[in-house]
């Protein structure tokens, strides 16, 4: 790794990571508003899920909030050039910025299946389409009428007075 500092302040202004066994090719260059990664496929291979181990922001809320398993690539920062709808910009590290979080009781309702058919989809929209720097995410599920209300499904055929 090479560290470049500003001459006047000694502040780190650039980091350059080189691959030691491949002609010292630059693999990653970081500086203000620059995240230039040599091979963006690492963010798309298997939808980038190998990188989820570094996604720690929500861990502090794990007792209060729940998120379904992510199986889509990082949702930000996509190129806003319409000819590059699947390319990430080199301004920031690709990340899962767009998320759907829920309480544990909401999770139970969503994952509770009707007729043992679980139809829950957590994904992103427009994987091959240019639509700005974020790919929106969605959560689709079926929920039984009255779910979550304990007496909603009780028959009210007979009233005893």
UniProtKB/TrEMBL annotation:
<feature type="domain" description="Inositol polyphosphate-related phosphatase">
    <location>
        <begin position="1"/>
        <end position="149"/>
    </location>
</feature>
<dbReference type="InterPro" id="IPR000300">
    <property type="entry name" value="IPPc"/>
</dbReference>
<dbReference type="GO" id="GO:0046856">
    <property type="term" value="P:phosphatidylinositol dephosphorylation"/>
</dbReference>
<dbReference type="InterPro" id="IPR039737">
    <property type="entry name" value="INPP5A"/>
</dbReference>
<protein>
    <recommendedName>
        <fullName>inositol-polyphosphate 5-phosphatase</fullName>
        <ecNumber>3.1.3.56</ecNumber>
    </recommendedName>
</protein>
<dbReference type="InterPro" id="IPR036691">
    <property type="entry name" value="Endo/exonu/phosph_ase_sf"/>
</dbReference>
<dbReference type="GO" id="GO:0004445">
    <property type="term" value="F:inositol-polyphosphate 5-phosphatase activity"/>
</dbReference>
<comment type="similarity">
    <text>Belongs to the inositol 1,4,5-trisphosphate 5-phosphatase type I family.</text>
</comment>
<keyword id="KW-0378">Hydrolase</keyword>
<dbReference type="Pfam" id="PF22669">
    <property type="entry name" value="Exo_endo_phos2"/>
</dbReference>
């Amino acid at each position: 790794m090479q560290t470049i500092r500003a001459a006047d302040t000694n502040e780190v202004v650039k980091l350059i990571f080189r691959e030691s066994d491949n002609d010292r090719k630059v693999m990653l260059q970081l500086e203000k508003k620059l995240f230039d990664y040599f091979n963006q496929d690492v963010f798309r291979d298997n939808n980038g899920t190998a990188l989820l181990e570094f996604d720690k922001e929500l861990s502090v809320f794990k007792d209060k909030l729940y998120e379904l398993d992510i199986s889509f690539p990082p949702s930000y920062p996509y190129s806003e050039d319409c000819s590059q709808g699947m390319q990430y910009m080199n301004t920031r590290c690709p990340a899962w910025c767009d998320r759907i979080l829920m309480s544990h009781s909401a999770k139970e309702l969503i994952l509770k299946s009707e007729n043992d058919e679980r139809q829950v989809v957590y994904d992103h929209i427009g994987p091959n389409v240019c639509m700005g720097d974020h790919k929106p995410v969605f959560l689709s599920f079926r929920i039984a009428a009255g779910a979550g209300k304990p007496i909603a499904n009780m028959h009210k055929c007979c009233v005893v007075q």
